[in-house]
Amino acid sequence: MTGVEKEPGGAYIVGPVWKAMKVLAFVAESGRVVSLTEVAEALHLPKTTAFRYLHTLSASTFLEHHVNEDRYEIGARFRALARTDSSLHRLREVSLPIMRQLLEQFNETINLAIESGGEMIYIEVIESTRTLRIGARIGTREPMHTTALGKAFLAYMEESARETVFRSGLAARTHRSLRDVRILKRQLESVRQLGFAVETGENEDGALCVGVPILDDLNHPIGALSLSAPERRQAADLVDRATQALVKAGKTITRQMHEALPV
Predict the structure, then answer these.
(1) Rounded to the nearest 10 degrees, what angle do helices 76-106 and 236-260 cross at?
(2) What is the pLDDT of residues 190-241, one digit of tens each?
(3) Structural domains of the chain ordered from first start
(4) What is the mean pLDDT of the chain?
(5) If phi over 0 gives left and psi between -120 and 50 gives alpha, with beta otherwise, what is residue 70?
(6) CA–CA gap between residue 115 and residue 134 (Å, rounded)
């Protein structure tokens, strides 16, 4: 990165944000602690301007200010985002071959999702090749309590985190959606015992979904895997086979995620 890089044009570019991101990138790419003077000189900024950016980024914990030395380096939030990005990349990398195997076995849509802001967000979707199929788009957000993905994830969350989701309210997506927290809690207990969740028409009319959790080494959820299909196509024996395959797949991804953890 060079200090002579110009701010891009365009009516939608916010100049101070652009410059703050350059400051953050400079500190991160330096790989060491840096001084206010270094930042100002490298990016051709007045010292007072560079100081304001550094102070703001430190207050938001994207940077850390070592007061005694008056030096700056990347902070806790930046490191957390980097770890999250690395974890998501690893989760996709490990999950995709197994998702493709499930698609080949059942030819039904296979989904991978994580929790974000009390909802499930789809990060990978491999669609069935059938004309009639159920599928979400990558980036779609869905309630936790109406989806098999969400229930599989909810069941293994820490109790305080679950209660936060409950307090946000159980909004209905269809006439089958659960609105009673007591019933949902009983379902989640069953999910913990069986290792999978099933929902039929709770999130989308005419859709059936089976979901399983992907867990970390402390048995906390890091994601969830599901198979979704039109309800009318899913005979009981097929649901049983799909459930068994998904539970096995979830455990395989969990194990491989643990094996991929850095020493």
Answers:
(1) 140
(2) 999 999 999 998 988 888 899 999 998 888 999 999 999 888 777 677 788 8
(3) 15-74 (1.10.10.10), 83-260 (3.30.450.40)
(4) 87
(5) left
(6) 21
